[in-house]
Amino acid sequence: MKKKIISLSLVYIMIHLTFLSAAQEVHWGVKGGGNMSAMLLKDENGYYKVKLQPGFHVGGLAEFTLSEKFAIQSSLLFTTKGYKHDKDGFSNQLLGVDMVKYTSYYLELPVNAVFKPEVGSGTLLLGAGPYLAYGLGGKWKAVNDGYGTTGTLKFLNNYQSSDSTLGGNTKKLPYTKPLDFGANILVGYEFFNNFFFHVNGQVGLIDVDPSYNGISDEKSFQKTVQFGLTLGYKF
Q: What stretch of H or E contains 205?
């Protein structure tokens, strides 16, 4: 995991070096906010019913001004994602419980091209671009007849039945592949004093469903989705 985190950090540095030579100005800042996330889950029977899971994101940003109205903004964020499902979904088939909630932790690198026309005393923010994320870990909670059971999540590219220790003391469950890639959009406003906010949406573009015993199920997939509100400040 440490190697993956270092690799993602190196990608972040390389992005900075790439845009640094073309930038007229570089601004640093911080941002954070709340988000709601879920998972698109599908198999040969169709899509599963899932419910949104609240979470948050926090981290730093760098904005490379390319012209008066265009900039590239990259961020390095710690963000939580996940989803939950109940008997109306498939939890009764999976664990025999009333509700299961998954909370996962990611180190995420979004890079957005931002159009910034002047509106009033500030600028409108219209942005879009890709993101790269790596799963760090997580937790799950199952509730049955008002009683809760908790455990941890394991990010795996491939898992075997021995990787799930639900019945043991550790209570670990396989989750998804650790590496995620997708697209995000944002719409917001930046005030004259460098405070800004934006609403953002995100959808995964790759299947993060791990293989089982080395075999991938071509009829199923898992893709992350998320939307949220971000507040920030540029120095």
A: none
Dihedral sign (CA 20, 26, 30, 32): negative
Q: What is the CATH number of the domain that holds 192?
A: 2.40.160
Looking at 85-210, list the stretches that DSSP marks H as alpha helix, in order from N- to C-terminal side.
Answer: 91-94
Tracing tokens 């900075």 back to the chain, one arrives at: 16
Max distance between CA atoms of the chain, in angstroms, equals 60
What range defines the domain where residue 51 resides?
Answer: 2-83+105-139+180-234
Cross-strand partners of 22: none
Q: Label the pairing between strands 211-212 and 158-159.
A: parallel
Contact call for residues 232 and 61 (beta carbons, < 8 A) = yes
Q: How far apart are CA 8 and CA 210, in angstroms?
A: 21
- The answer to the question of residue 123 being in a domain is yes
Q: Are 100 and 117 in contact (CB under 8 A)?
A: no
Burial level of 21, CB count in 10 A (0-12/13-18/19+)? exposed
What global pTM score does this model have? 0.85
> Is residue 62, in this structure, part of any structural domain at all?
yes
* Residue 25 to residue 186: CA distance in whole angstroms: 21
Domain total of the chain: 1
* Tens-place pLDDT, residues 109-161: 999 999 999 999 999 999 999 999 999 999 998 887 777 788 899 899 887 76
pLDDT tens track for 150-185: 889 989 988 776 665 555 556 788 899 999 999 999
The residue with tokens 């800042």 is 29
Residue 209 CB contacts under 8 Å (≥ 6 apart), including other chains: 176, 177, 216, 217, 220, 221, 222
